[in-house]
Amino acid sequence: MKVYDVHIHSSSVLDSEQLLKQMAEAGVWGGSVFSQHPQCFSGLGRHSAVGRDRLSMVLEACKGQEGRLFPVLWIHPDEPDTIDLIAEAAERGIAAFKCICNSFYIGEEKGIRMLEAVARTGKPIFFHSGILWDDSPSSKYNRPLNWEELLDRSSGTIDRLQGLRFSLGHCSWPWYDECIALYGKFLANLRQHPEDNIEMFFDLTPGTPVSYRYDLFRKLLNCGYDVEHNILWGTDCTAEDYNSEWAKKWLGTDNAIMDALNISEGIREHIFQKNYERFLGLPGCERHVLIPVSSDGRAVSCEQ
Question: Dihedral (C-alpha) 255, 179, 126, 216: value to the nearest 10 degrees?
Answer without folding.
Answer: -10
